[in-house]
Amino acid sequence: MLSLENVTKRYGRHGEVVALDDVSLSVGEGEFLILSGPSGAGKTTMLRLIFAAEQPDGGRIKIFNRDIGRLRRASIPYLRRNIGVVFQDFKLLPERTALENVALALEIRALPRREIHERAADALASVGLAWKLNVTPRRLSAGEQQRVAIARAVVGQPAILLCDEPTGNLDPKLTQDLLQLFSDVHRRGTTVLLATHDLGVMACGERLGWRRVELEMGKIVPSATPNVLSFPISARVSGGTPAP
């Protein structure tokens, strides 16, 4: 479904900052992949390239067997209809209600207003916010704002969901709840890429059988296996209990 072939991305006036260095990676349909690594490792850059927010300086990225570097500019919005994105800083419009923020993802499809309203409301209900449809982000907690962002990302039923440090601003309880939401989305058939440096999230992923790829200084490196027993968050999401 998704592949990166020898992808390189540089920044700086003379390309002196290497964000990704000859990275190759394949992600299968319906897979849940955790992209781990410290800040500055290249995780966000990789997600931005997949979303076609930027173009690689070398190599190519293929989605649905199409080289997105060769897409016409007019074709990029169609590509993005199949990709949902959850940003760490939410990116909600403060003057719009939760329902209106989620509806924005459907308005570009020129759907009937009634259908947009119903689907946006259903998406918010699926993340436990059916009773806060008309509340603006300023009156929502951080966890509730993140849930709105998730509802917006999945309302269009994307084939791929990209999550950039989605639990970075949340406490452990809210992190548990959000990982359960992502797990539910994945079980419905969506391919998920979740970028994180949170060891608890990595341990949860191991418990659930999610593949992990680690980035360091723009390169993929062998991943160290986290100690699952040290992170009870995994038991909460998987519905089990920690081993003794």
Summarize the structure.
The protein is of the alpha/beta class and 244 residues long. Helices cover 34% and strands 24% of the residues.
Task: Give your account of this protein's structure.
The chain is 34% helix and 24% strand. It has 244 residues and is an alpha/beta fold. The chain has 2 domains: 122 residues, P-loop containing nucleotide triphosphate hydrolases (Rossmann fold), CATH 3.40.50; 63 residues, no CATH class. The strands form 2 sheets. The protein has a 6-stranded mixed beta sheet with strand order 6-7-8-3-9-10, sandwiched between helices. Helix 3 packs across helix 4 and helix 3 packs parallel to helix 5. The radius of gyration is 18 Å and the shape is globular. It starts with a strand and ends in a 6-residue tail after the last helix. The C terminus is likely disordered.
CATH architecture of the largest domain: 3-Layer(aba) Sandwich
How much of the polypeptide forms β-strand, as a percent range?
15-25%
Round the mean pLDDT to the nearest integer and report it: 87
Q: Can you tell me the CATH topology of the largest domain?
A: Rossmann fold
Order of helices and strands: EEEHEEHEHHHEHEHEEH
Largest sheet: 6 strands, mixed
Number of extended strands: 10
Q: Provide the spatial order of strands within the biggest beta sheet.
A: 6-7-8-3-9-10
Shape: globular
Structural class by helix and strand composition = alpha/beta
Number of helices: 8
Please report the first level of CATH classification, the CATH class of the largest domain: Alpha Beta
